[in-house]
Amino acid sequence: MSSSSSPASLLDMDLRPGAPPVLRAEATGDAPSWAAEHRDALRALVAEHGCVLVRGLGLRDAAGTGAVFSELATGLMTEKEAFAPRRTYSDGVYSSTKWPPNQPMCMHHELSYTLEFPGLMLFACISAPTDGGATAVADSPAVLDALPTELVQRFEREGWLLTRNYNDEIGASFAEAFGTEDRGAVESYCRANAIEFEWQPDGALRTRQRRSAVVRHLGTGRRCWFNQIAFLNEWTLAPEVHEYLVDVYGAEGLPFNTRFGDGDPIGEEVVQLLNSVYESNTAREPWQTGDLMLVDNIRTAHSREPFEGPREVLVAMADGVRLADCSPTVEVTAG
């Protein structure tokens, strides 16, 4: 089958309510060649559905997975401004974020707080957990349509504000997030990327950045709810974790938090509403070892559900998109 094959001709496509599209592939032991052959058709499926899970590729290691990622992407990205540590397997190929297995990672769009973010996310399951751990997805235009109009309008006017306090205990250190321990280089990056920064007396770094909560998809022109307002908000944390962090760092010293664009706190009820709308629009399919998943990062939010047992999912961020090209609703002025 050539790379010009239509999506409909791609073997066995399984479309079920409440699940992402699942494509059953026959790679005959050479997943990179299969990916190269079917690249255009797979990307057409992502354009049509927002995501696709490919089953049957038999992915087992970082080298083979990286080769598949490279065949499918226009270009792999180096992560900047990470909120939690990852292991780097090779250029552009990472582990999933280190996050407690018993805690969910709420729906979000990868690096939606940066000025250049991935248009495509690639996931590969090298080892499936014994229970849970799905990378669930939600359609962003549907989420936007389901949110109260007044709330959307406020976020469109003001955007959202991400505050971060980098330390060496919780989340990524500033050296991990910016790829350097050089304060001058960090400051230059922040100025170039519209990030306010302040060094604390103990040497810790505090940052603030305001971003649009709604953008337009480059391919379709549809408005998308595109942010990490709920995921990086204090009220999404488990109550005991939230209580501990506030006790240790204070309400203003949390490793990360989100606010309305004017700086007002986002109430717990708003975060609960956002997460309930995400859940109402969630599609999930349990990982099987060897699976591959492609996700349109603007149209489709993703999450990671709690799990038990070893779970190894490799990640690549690809096809960089500039926020300025997506009709942002708030102005961002970089230095």
TrEMBL record:
<feature type="domain" description="TauD/TfdA-like">
    <location>
        <begin position="19"/>
        <end position="317"/>
    </location>
</feature>
<dbReference type="InterPro" id="IPR042098">
    <property type="entry name" value="TauD-like_sf"/>
</dbReference>
<keyword id="KW-0408">Iron</keyword>
<keyword id="KW-0223">Dioxygenase</keyword>
<dbReference type="InterPro" id="IPR003819">
    <property type="entry name" value="TauD/TfdA-like"/>
</dbReference>
<dbReference type="GO" id="GO:0017000">
    <property type="term" value="P:antibiotic biosynthetic process"/>
</dbReference>
<dbReference type="GO" id="GO:0051213">
    <property type="term" value="F:dioxygenase activity"/>
</dbReference>
<keyword id="KW-0560">Oxidoreductase</keyword>
<dbReference type="InterPro" id="IPR050411">
    <property type="entry name" value="AlphaKG_dependent_hydroxylases"/>
</dbReference>
<dbReference type="Pfam" id="PF02668">
    <property type="entry name" value="TauD"/>
</dbReference>
<protein>
    <submittedName>
        <fullName>TauD/TfdA family dioxygenase</fullName>
    </submittedName>
</protein>
<keyword id="KW-0045">Antibiotic biosynthesis</keyword>
